[in-house]
């Protein structure tokens, strides 16, 4: 067996099929759909929960939405600000 190859997988797939282990394409589609649904449902959570959060914290609904939006912006700024650095 050649290094880096899976047993039973040929290097030149038949026409119309995708390279890789059997079922890999199905797995990619299932994971992609699951991630899309999870993302879509989680982006609505601040809007759905804003009234309850505002009531529990004693603030206006607009302030609760602004707070959730600022947390997302802070998270984005942290992700963009992280750069790989050499450790000495």
Brief account:
The chain is built from three helices and no strands. With 88 residues, the protein is mostly helical. It starts with 23 loop residues before the first helix and ends in a 7-residue tail after the last helix.
Please give a structural write-up.
- The protein is mostly helical and 88 residues long.
- The chain has a domain of 32 residues.
- The protein is 61% helix and 0% strand.
- Helix 2 crosses helix 3.
- The model has no long low-confidence stretch (mean pLDDT 79).
List the helices and strands and how they pair.
Elements lengths: L23 H20 L1 H13 L3 H21 L7
Number of strands: 0
Indicate the radius of gyration in whole angstroms: 23 Å
Biggest sheet overview: none
Task: State the distance separating the first and last CA atoms.
Answer: 41 Å
Report the mean per-residue pLDDT as an integer: 79
Q: Uncertain segments of ≥5 residues (pLDDT<50)?
A: none
Written as H for each helix and E for each strand, in order along the chain, the element string is HHH
Helix content: 55-70%
Approximately what portion of the residues adopt beta-strand conformation? under 5%
- The class by helix and strand makeup works out as mainly alpha
Please work out how many helical segments DSSP would assign: 3
From the spread of the alpha carbons, the general shape counts as flat
């Amino acid at each position: 067996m050649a290094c880096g190859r899976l047993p039973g997988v040929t290097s030149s797939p038949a026409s119309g099929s995708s390279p890789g282990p059997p079922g890999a394409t199905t797995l990619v589609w299932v994971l992609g759909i699951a991630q899309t649904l999870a993302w879509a449902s989680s982006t609505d959570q601040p809007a759905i929960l804003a009234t309850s959060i505002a009531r529990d914290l004693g603030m206006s609904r607009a302030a609760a939405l602004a707070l959730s939006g600022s947390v997302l912006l802070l998270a984005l700024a942290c992700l963009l600000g992280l750069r790989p650095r050499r450790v000495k």
